User: Fold these one by one.
Assistant:
Number 1:
Amino acid sequence: MDLKDLLNTTFDCECGRSHDVPIRNLVYAEDALERLPKILGSFVDGRRVVLVADQRTWAIAGEGARQVLEHKGWSVNHIIVPDTERGGPVCDDTTHAWLNSKLPAADIALAVGCGVINDLTKWLAFDRDLPYAVVATAATMNGFAASNVAPALKGVKTILSARPPLAVFAIPSVITNAPFELTAAGLGDTIAKPISTADWILNHIFNDEYFCRYCSEIINTLEPYYFDRAEDIKKRQPAAIEALFDALLYSGIAMTIVGTSAPASGGEHLLSHTLDMMSSIDGVAHDLHGRQVGLGTLFASAIYDRIFQVEPPRCYPLPPDIDRVFWGRLAASVGQQYEQKKPMLQTIREKLTDGKTWRAFLAACRQQVRSPHQIKNCLRTAGAAHTFADIGCSRERLLAAILHMHEIRTRPTVIDLAWILGILPGAADEIIDRWLTDEGAPVGAEGEEKRDNPQGL
Ligand SMILES: [Zn+2]
Ligand SMILES: [Zn+2]
């Protein structure tokens, strides 16, 4: 599978759908900025661009992009999204409204930055029916090439549909020399993808969710790009950083192809979303998306490990409602989402009694999921966050997040399955102590099981 062939294509897939990749250019080159005028000029007739950045990314690449574009006769307006009290800008309804009020007339939008700046620009460009492109400044998350946006609406993390950029630009020396915690966060986000895909398989098997094998294979094809290069990523070896960047981009493209976040976001992501939401309730700072997702991946992998040992499956009663005291002012919207999920949880319970379905699930997901030992080893070797202390979170806060994360969102994940099978809440403490601390399992102590061939469904 040569992934570059995917760009700017529409094709009929074996899954029965026609897939569309509207992203036309990926430019990973030292002269990426110099190529902006020609490539942006190939997308639109007008020469008015609105450039969106934050203070840091403006200095890193925004100002340079403006100079190059103006030099070639473009009219460039720029908007610097202000930092918040707790750090960099955030992607939420308030910032969106602010940006909307500032947006001048333009032919194309250009985001210069990472997750938040890219999401804000993508969201606004979609609202205004404006083409957009992005200059990425770090390999920190996989939203660059994705069609969706993940804002907080009234404090609740949500997924909105939008359109992917027409082009992604990146300067290798900028990506390689970005603050290392950003790159390590990128690894945390990308290491999640095979396990997100396992949750997709779970939903396909138990809830007849649409599944595309071709897309799941994109995710699996990407794994060796980063998984086997943890040491090189730590050393910021340019080829390893480029491979990580590619893995992030193409997992975003996989989401664009299927039109949902299913191949790249499952139960492991809920830990990060929940920590973010707790932060919006009590004001305690949270860490970067990818750093939290790395821990979520470790947890979800340990949960899968336990599920694989269950035989035969037995269903336990679920709490009738979400924990409204815990969610405070977010309780109504969290509760609404949970209600939508309930019928699907009931379907899982019913199908669990069917041995054939259970065995199909085990066979497919055993092939798909790395062991927690392997995940921990990769994160630790790369210098990425792998303990709750690493993400600046107390054990108590992490446990609270873990015990409530299945209550958000409308789609079942492996975390729900663990509750249904009675693995949670009981196993949470043990998994935290074994896998999410530094005293946990020693590196190199266990066999390197896991698939050597991609899963087949
Ligand atoms: Zn993510
Ligand atoms: Zn397909």
Number 2:
Amino acid sequence: MISRRAALTAAGAGLVALGTGAVLATRDKPEPAGPASTDNAGRTVWRNWSGIQYCYPQQRLAPTSEGEIAQALKSAPGPVRVVGAGHSFTALATTAGTMMSLDQMAGIIGWDGDQAIVRAGTRLGDLGPALAAKGRAMANLPDINKQSLGGALGTGTHGTGKALKAIHGDVTALTLVTPRGEVIACSADQEPEVFNAARVSLGALGVISQATLRTTANRRLHRHVWVEPIEQTFAEAEARWDKHRNFEFYAFPFTDMTANITHDETDLAATIGGHSEDDSVLELMRIMRNLLGFSTPLRKAAAKALISTSRPEDVVDEGWKLLSTDRPIRFNEMEFHLPAENQLAALKAVIAAIERERPDIFFPIEARRIAGDDAWLSPFQGAGRGSIAVHCYYKDEFAFLYDLIQPILLQHGGRPHWGKLHNLQGAQLAALYPNWKDFLAVRQRLDPEGRMLNPYLKGLFNV
Ligand SMILES: Cc1cc2nc3c(=O)[nH]c(=O)nc-3n(C[C@H](O)[C@H](O)[C@H](O)COP(=O)(O)OP(=O)(O)OC[C@H]3O[C@@H](n4cnc5c(N)ncnc54)[C@H](O)[C@@H]3O)c2cc1C
């Protein structure tokens, strides 16, 4: 978010001023205890990216064709869960039965005009250069590009941009292999109910083998990153979402400052190097927490001084190279999508709650905007929404997300990101989605025996 050099320069000055306690403050907590690498039956553990979800699948499969997927769905030990890159924070992919990966089913397999037909195991990071080779690009990208296409669709994965939809919003057709072994091609005209249910379906309806994606011309984007006082961001955020192709900001608790990022199309030549990295700033925020967590006013003063010395950053490159970056520091995360008009009020309440009750939190809170779509379980179903994402260092306790943050986001009309932490189930979710029952009816029709249902999904769907 903020250039490493600028942050380190500022940090050097800041830490010298803060004295010798800084050395102690750089010490990190020990690794959290993890699961055994194998279980009693000798099965190898699977863990998600952040490490909090794990399971010991009886069988792991990597099919190479729809026929192989269909065979496994019918006969492999259940529950059958398909996994992408394992980047979801919730227990969506866990199973004691069969874990299926589509890593062997990747790549672009055809074109329908400017729409790319993409196998669902394709990683977003591989899709960028493959589309660019044809002068095309995905309209938008999430913060990282490690996800598989199937996984991104599975949870409603999105980037930021008021006029830009989540990834599933650009899907015009897809092929679903159902637990009974049927292969269903669906779109708005063909099997529309399956299409409405399957575009965001948590891997609960079967396995998506391929999807047809709208693409855009592969344009260069200009990224501008700058830091400012939070009052200014609150005053101008709405206008920035209107004005810029992509706008998002990160609010740093205990600083009253934000880092702001815009991306806009440009004909300027690509710049060399200088791509953003967020690890240095996060590391500094962690040190501030360790050093000054006992005094919010002191911490605010120090962190504010440190952040505000970072210089603006300007980078130009093709969009697929800029929109996603790396996240080298692991975290757990909750993200809710709120009616746009409630987003800033909810964010203020979240920051106030963290500053009041959780001095250990140092990750910034991310605010984005996403255009609406009509997939039944899309958090953006019906209208565009504003998202608020609260991150928590992977070594820190994260139960506060449920107890302190989730109630605020719910009060403001939020729907949870399916791949990120929340503890809503059954009736609570049904109240948030007008087509919840329609989705459950399609699920029941396609998977009457519940072959795809692990305990987590059973809780969500109340079955
Ligand atoms: C560091 C980090 C950054 C992130 N940034 C963003 C972001 O900017 N925006 C955002 O919206 N989210 C973000 N996420 C969340 C992430 O995009 C989602 O959790 C996404 O689902 C992960 O994709 P995956 O390939 O890892 O899928 P997994 O987590 O492996 O699976 C997700 C779901 O999709 C299902 N699934 C996978 N493949 C298929 C298939 N072929 N057919 C049917 N179902 C399938 C699985 O069964 C599961 O239910 C981030 C996560 C991390 C860890």
